[in-house]
Amino acid sequence: MSEMERRDRRVQRVVAGIYLGIPVVLLVVVAWISTAGSPLLWLGCVVPVGMLVIGWILRRRHRYQPRWWAGIGALFGAVTGLVVTLYPLAVGVWWPAFLALPALLVGIVAGSALARYADRVLLVPVVPELADTPYELIFRLGGLQLTAVLLGADSVTIQSRPVLRSQSTDARTYSLSAITGVFEVALSGVERLKFPIAIPHPPVVTAGPAVIVQASGDDWVLPTNQASTLIELLNRRRSTA
User: Fold this and answer.
1) d(Cα 174, Cα 234) in Å, to the nearest integer?
2) Quick check: helix, strand or coil at residue 161?
3) Tens digit of pLDDT for each residue in 157-197?
4) N or C: more exposed end of the chain, with fewer CB within 10 A?
5) Whole-number pLDDT of residue 165
6) Alpha-carbon torsion 117, 119, 122, 127, what sign?
């Protein structure tokens, strides 16, 4: 078994822990509490069972998309923290309710930490063999808040996150076959750059490495400290697309 295969297995075990393990733990706790009360209390298992079903469905969609792991981990962790401390009220145990807020915060931190650990296992160190996997790889853009390049298995997406919930995510996606050139450049910091999407904040261009992506007749200059890594992985995926 290669190092990349071992890394993939470790990552997927952690992802399964986020999407399936957290709901299973909550189900066990709720079932244990329900044994101390009336049979109607078993209806409380609906929440963890629902989380388990949702986690099963989302895991199939997100297993190779690290951008979703932290959000799901934080959400499931938060729900688990609240239910574990508030559900004992149904059997007349009051004191755990006073720990609801700390448990909520602990759940968010724990779920997010699992996602960060999965990210580290996948990406540290970054190796060329990552290009041969189906994982979506994220490269943050320098000087552009909330904006990133998502290198998928068969496409490249330049995406900005909305600042407000009412705003929609702006993104531009190119298939790997539409990319005609990828080059590394060094920015002096005085360039005026044009981007294929609307960005949430005015760009602050500083001196440093960047990637020129030529796609569909357009040239985009994308500042990133990981320029050489992005180019290597992008070209490797282009060669096998």
Assistant:
1) 12
2) coil
3) 988 865 444 345 678 899 999 999 999 999 887 777 777 77
4) N
5) 43
6) negative
For range 111-122, the mean pLDDT: 96
Q: What is the pLDDT of residue 166?
A: 39
Pairwise CA distance, residues 39 & 90, whole Å: 12
* Confidence at residue 195, expressed as pLDDT on a 0 to 100 scale: 77
C-alpha span between 186 and 205 (Å, rounded): 11
User: Alpha helices, DSSP H only, in the chain?
Assistant: 3-16, 22-34, 46-62, 69-86, 100-123, 227-240
Q: How confident is the model at residue 13 (pLDDT cuts 50, 70, 90)?
A: very high
Among residues 50, 72, 48, the alpha carbon closest in space to that of 59 is found at 72
Structure tokens at 117: 């650990």
Write down how long the chain is. Answer: 241
Nearest Cα to 49, choosing from 30, 73, 71?
30
Among 222, 234, 227, which Cα is nearest to 147's?
222
Q: What is the CA radius of gyration of the chain?
A: 22
CA distance 208 to 202: 18
Mean pLDDT to the nearest integer, 233-238:
93
